[in-house]
Amino acid sequence: MNRAQQRRIGTTDLVVDTLGFGGAPLGNLYAPISDGDARDLLGTAWDAGFRYYDTAPHYGQGLSERRLGDALRGHRGGGYVLSTKVGRLLAPAGYADERHLYRSPMPFDIVYDYSYDGVMRSFEDSLQRLGLDRIDILYLHDIGEATHGSDNHALFRTAMDGGYRALDELRSDGRVSAIGLGVNEWEVCEAAMEHGDWDCFLLAGRYTLLEQAALDSFLPKCVERQCSVVVGGPYNSGILVTGTRRQGHYNYAAAPDDVLSTVRCMEAICRDFDVPLPAAALQFPLAHPAVASVIPGMARVKHVASTRRYFNVPIPAAFWEALRDEGLVRADAPLPGAPGTGETGR
Fold this sequence. Notes:
CATH class: Alpha Beta
Shape: globular
Order of helices and strands: EEEHEHEEEEEHEHHEHEHEHEEHHEHH
CATH superfamily: NADP-dependent oxidoreductase domain
Distance between the termini: 8 Å
Oligomer: single chain
CATH topology: TIM Barrel
Number of helices: 12
Structural class: alpha/beta
Largest sheet: 8 strands, parallel
Number of strands: 16
Strand content: 15-25%
Helix content: 25-40%
């Protein structure tokens, strides 16, 4: 990883590293991490050159923000980019062994609020939890039918009215540098484009080796409107790093048979070309000109070195062509190293 590997967020002056640090595991996603291990993980990531960090109030109901802020505070704003999210307020709820897939979270539960006042309060609360003097990118978190079902229509209207007005005001006042959505559905990002001027979208799990439906209309619109995309969940919750040697996670649940079958086909091509599957998963999204960064989550110190290694593995063009020839990636998907695609920095 080289600090020169940076891309601009939209039309702003903000640039991010093409490889960032996803902070969901810091909230004890699936399994607890001790405070000491979290400190070691973040210290190792900083020493390894990671400078773009993403978190959210949802991750451990405040735990990820607290841990990340503690780690970054000593650097006094020096050289990092930080994103967090709004749309969930935290209310006291007592201690629990697990909430919303997070183990031993902070003693709070979530209250959705996408209104003007809710977004402003969420922003201020995040600054307090982080203990930092700035947030660079603010994402409206998890608006969409996947989270809200039949309630989404009304919540989306509130978010695009009051919520967007708050985000736009924070950006205009210079309190944040960029605004966007942080979601698991590209469709809601595309709908939001008709209601506001967005700088970027954090799209988790929807533009990966396994999923490229975002190519239909969303990603072309991002290029046209100069909106950047940050790809979260490049491993689709784990299956593209664990492979099929055990029942991995896909979209926060056990991987279904059809996904396992597709991954087995990918693994066969990976063996033919001696390419690690997670290396291909990390590098693939960055070939699209709309994508500014990919931010895998890391839960252990050893993941820092392995992530860097995967990110920098040389992958021959013939490997990508083999995936395309077998129908494992779409014919219209930009491939790393091809003319006119984004640079992956190796």
